[in-house]
Write a structure and sequence with these properties.
3-stranded mixed beta sheet, 3 strands, protein biosynthesis, 5 helices, mainly alpha
Length: about 180
Amino acid sequence: MHQIDELITLFERTFFATYNTRLVRGDVEPIYLPADDECNFHRIVFAHGFYASALHEIAHWLVAGQRRRQLEDYGYWYCPDGRDKAQQHEFENVEVHPQAIEWALCLAAGFTFNVSADNLGGEQTCRFSFQKRVYDKLLTLIEQGFNERTEQLLQALAQHYGQAYPLRREQLQWQPPKELDYAV
């Protein structure tokens, strides 16, 4: 049901003419590459043809402003897998907004969302606490609205996959466990 070629085509139809940006399969780590002397368009490179990876990388692009979209990987700090607890908290702070957007994209596409702490070889934090923060951000975005590019893609995905649009709070299936302490 969720074919990566469909997502690539949908993204291109929605954004290429206006933003000169393409969604590209990669063989290694995901990265955003702005147009340069070797390639005349911007590339959102996602990992190994995975649909979930593509949605995650698109979410980062949707969050990035015009200036950041001129920088490799949007000019963001990134510390690879193996982060200590403090680094992991900093990583999660940066990831809350893009993962909330990713969750919205998943809802619009009828695709299952999984929060990603992305630190398999490092110190773990409370996954439910992080997911609760992403959930809360998504609720805020649903209530206050998404930016124009995000709205464009949400509408295109919902139309393509026959999902309800605009997104509503009631579409969220996740309920945070009540017994956990969510202190960050």
